[in-house]
Task: inverse folding
């Protein structure tokens, strides 16, 4: 009986170790991807935005929203049809928040063409 209990405990321990190793590998991959994305992201001010992007933010659609953080996201090196986009965080009076993504021409860059 002791052998069966020991064997069951050993199998359980190996199973937990395997799960933990997989979780760590997944975390490492996600951190590497996040770091790459952050390397391409630069915080900018509203004054640094191109005129078409400023025009979109000044439009009536967003007049009730407060502009928060703005990030200029550069494309990954070697990406085909790579464009600079701007991620703009907005908050309204009710405390709802959202993010819009615009290209340099002020067009919605979150939609796939």
Result:
């Amino acid at each position: 009986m002791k052998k069966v209990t020991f064997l069951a405990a050993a199998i359980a321990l190996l199973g937990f170790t395997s799960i933990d190793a997989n979780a760590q590998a997944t975390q490492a991959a996600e951190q590497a991807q996040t770091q790459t994305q952050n390397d391409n992201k630069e915080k900018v001010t509203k004054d640094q935005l191109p005129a078409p992007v400023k025009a979109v933010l000044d439009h009536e659609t967003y007049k009730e929203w407060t502009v928060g953080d703005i990030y200029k996201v550069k494309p990954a090196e070697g990406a085909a049809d790579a464009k600079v986009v701007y991620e703009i965080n907005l908050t309204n009076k009710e405390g709802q928040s959202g993010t819009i993504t615009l290209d340099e021409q002020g067009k919605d860059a979150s939609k796939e063409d």
